[in-house]
Amino acid sequence: MTESGRIAWAITGSGHYLKECLALAESLPNLDLFLSEAAAEVLHAYGHPFKDLKTRFRIFRDSTASAPPVGLFYKGVYDLLVVAPATSNSVAKMVFGISDTLVTNVYAQAGKCRVPSIVFACDVAPAMETEAPSGTVKVYPRSIDLQNTERLKEFEYTNVVTSLDELRTALSISEPCRNISSF
Questions:
Q1: Fewer CB within 10 A of the end CB, N or C, for the chain?
Q2: What is the pLDDT of residue 61?
Q3: Is 74 exposed, middle or buried (0-12, 13-18, 19+ CB in 10 A)?
Q4: What are the phi and psi torsion angles at 24 (to 5°)?
Q5: Which one-letter DSSP state was computed for residue 97?
């Protein structure tokens, strides 16, 4: 997928296909993890301790107000940003240009640097099953959450995927953005 650069993989506070997203991330070379505060909590709750992840990835955590790791996008370190899984909260912030977490900040900076992003949105249907720490649960995303997912699909340098299969496919192609004309 990328020849010389690295992949930035950002995780938000969702357990939706979290195990599968981590397995995909682990299968890719030259990948760094960016974790929101909520992601750090959710990873622990789902049985993925931070200390175990540190043995497999270089990790940046949401621990400062200015999010210094975003500067790596300006230095050309990353060829691709993947946000997977992406909560409705993070998607809404992306849609409205709010970059107050490490994940939403790297998404904003990736766009400003014309680094393509793949966003695996969690809330994509009026009724869904998702994985909770205690097992599978039924969830009913609000219409605003579904609308924000649709709005994000229109953003330049952004490919919104709505299933694990779409994420796998997007990771296997050389140009992961839908809005390729804006390059």
A1: C
A2: 84
A3: exposed
A4: -65, -45
A5: T
CA 105 to chain centre: 12
Whether the CB-CB separation of 75 and 85 falls below 8 Å is answered with: no
Given this model, what pLDDT does residue 67 score?
64
DSSP per residue over 63-96, as a string?
-SSS-GGGHHHHTT-EEEEEEEEE-HHHHHHHHT
**Side-chain half-sphere exposure of 3, counting CA atoms within 13 A:** 2
Structure tokens at 60: 């940046």
Output the pTM of the full model. Answer: 0.87
Q: Which domain holds residue 69?
A: 6-182
* pLDDT score of 163: 94
Give the CA count within 13 Å in the CB-facing half-sphere of 22: 22
DSSP category for residue 181: G
Over residues 4-29, the pLDDT tens digits come to: 579 999 999 888 888 899 999 999 98
Lowest mean pLDDT among 67-81, 142-156, 168-182: 168-182
Going edge to edge, which strands form the sheet with 158-161? 58-61, 31-35, 6-11, 78-86, 117-121, 158-161
Q: Is residue 58 in a domain?
A: yes
> Who's near 18: CB < 8 A, 6+ residues apart?
11, 42, 43, 46, 48, 85, 131
CATH number of residue 90's parent domain: 3.40.50.1950
